[in-house]
Amino acid sequence: MSSYRDLTLVPRRTNWDIKRDPDAILAKLIALDDDIVTRILTFVVAECLPCGTPWVEAAGMAMKTDMSACWTPDQAFLDLVRDKNTLNLLIEQVAGKDTADAHVTSTGKVQRQILTNCIKGEREAKEGAWDLPYMRFPMKDYTDQFGIEAIDAWIKVRHHYEV
Length: 163
What we know:
The chain is mainly alpha-helical and 163 residues long. Helices cover 49% and strands 0% of the residues. It has eight helices and no strands. Helix 5 runs parallel beside helix 7. It starts with 21 loop residues before the first helix and ends in a 6-residue tail after the last helix.
């Protein structure tokens, strides 16, 4: 047996079955600078917070997160929007009511292209147009059709978090 002593507080992926002393971890965290602890906490939360759960909504609300300050739409986002009514509401928000009305019966492909052109700057987008309800805390939908699991889950538990 080797005399090597592993001083890693948190097990590596290859050592998932090794238990660590929580008191040793807490003592080490207390000794660290606040900025370092905050950075560590960011990674811990990112690893542990289950995506699409009400916890994400609660954390976003508690931290007063402004997604419009750090998120911009891309083609992948537009490809995920399947509902034509939602696409048209997005066009209204981003390109204006006249454009949305003119394309209410257009195909999803045409509607996505309008939004893509706004993203690329080939078509003018309204000021603050990309402050989408999907990217707020708590997340909201454009329609009342339900079906977005994260929103449905939030509705069931929001009473615990509202002041």
